[in-house]
């Protein structure tokens, strides 16, 4: 963490629509110049956070700060943030140039300044020759680019992107992910990106907030969140996971599927009931004698660079395995993994407790 | 093929029936006689008579000014009304406003005319140009509202959010985003109001006083003494003007379409699907 004031800060922010609690005591701090992602299923409150930052919604209680100044009731048009809307929200009665020029013109820039700004922004999104086009003549991907150029033309400190890639096809989405990342690095401003696509979040972000039911479940770097999910929801939502029930016998010793395993987690109560996570790519097929687990292969499908294998152990637990070698359905094989591949999750552990525990035993 | 022929025949009969009276009227505007009974040779007399009838020309001008003015005011009031109705969050209240608007549209002209007449007399308002203007504005507003509301309803709220996001205040949102978006509806509303005002007989009949009259009321009162062929000449000119207007409109539309088509050659970015 840098020793700078965060550009955006939420303190204990609450919001309800009628009797539905949309956000529950949200705390977050965003540093300038980073790429943040709010990740969660629909209805988790991630777009609501975006609307609170942009000023489309007002918080019921709590503080929203911009560079240390309270902006709870500052109207949207006075905030130094701009939004790329999910449906692009381009003005249909204006052409590409006028859409991008909308913000700069309102700011009272001269004609030449406006033209320069629009040209710079359009070339940034690779639409330099499109300024005279009408909006309805553009494809979805092109409209997307115009929406980004229009938002950036206002020189925002923070760019908010509300699921901007969800309407694009797979290949175009991949390209745009990279391009957005490049644009963010080039401009050096803060991006807050909302998505329900965990792959997208892992690929693009410096820092991810995983949300569910109006609560931030976990935040951290993509690696942290993937490797050390805090609870069942995060483990399940981010990537594929094998989750089984277990008991922490003592520090560095966990019991699950009827056996004791050495692992790298500590700091729990003795005999504490926990959940055990092992990622499918960390499991390897081996012989029954060498296997830490013995399973029966149930299903297998070829995925190009690996085989997706479903297997069942003798206790009836399902195991997902990503293996480089193929197996035979019905065959009994061993599964092996390293102690550091076992990740332990405590029930109802808060993020603060989780971080504190990690720090304690990692020292 | 047979089906096609029947359809053509049907349309021909239909249009003949529709246009025959007008053709008949135009033809007799050149009749040397003084009635529509029997053709007595060609003459421009009725046109000469028409152009020297300053009273009638004055009425034509009055009617046009009335239509323009009432349509203009009704468009402004109706646009504001549509914006207000559309902004209502309370559904019951919104539907009530809408129903009140629609009731005015379907209620008979005679009733509107009579009630306005009663209103004006009770208030001691003298009948004349101003009373007629008020009456025309009154029955045009619901039409304008009805033309504009659908455009407003189909407009996505995210456009307003986007405009605010980019720094527009409420007034700028209205003038630069909302109004341009609904402008086709506003224009249509204006023209509807204009033609309704030109057309109207029933309401106008009640609220025109002694000094002021419109074309429809004037033609009606003249017709009671037997239609002079001067009226035929006037109708012919009005018919011609409307044909020219329709042609003009058609040409503008054609040109707009062609421009649109020329622009439609898209450039597709690499890796992008149409």
TrEMBL record, chain A:
Matches recorded under InterPro entries: AAA+_ATPase (IPR003593), ABC_SmlMolc_Importer (IPR050093), ABC_transporter-like_ATP-bd (IPR003439), ABC_transporter-like_CS (IPR017871), Mo/tungstate-bd_C_term_dom (IPR008995), P-loop_NTPase (IPR027417), Transp-assoc_OB_typ2 (IPR013611)
Keywords, ordered alphabetically: ATP-binding, Nucleotide-binding, Translocase, Transport
Domain annotation ABC transporter: ranges: 8-238
GO MF terms held by the record: ATP binding
PROSITE patterns hit by this protein: ABC_TRANSPORTER_1 (PS00211), ABC_TRANSPORTER_2 (PS50893)
The protein's name in its UniProt record: Spermidine/putrescine import ATP-binding protein PotA
TrEMBL record, chain B:
Keywords, sorted A to Z: Cell membrane, Membrane, Transmembrane, Transmembrane helix, Transport
Localization annotation: Cell membrane
Membrane topology per record: Multi-pass membrane protein
Residue intervals passing through the bilayer: 7-30, 64-85, 97-127, 133-152, 173-196, 231-252
Location of the ABC transmembrane type-1 domain: 60-249
Keyword Membrane: yes
CDD domains: TM_PBP2
Entry-linked Pfam families: BPD_transp_1
Family to which this protein belongs: Belongs to the binding-protein-dependent transport system permease family. CysTW subfamily.
Protein name: ABC transmembrane type-1 domain-containing protein
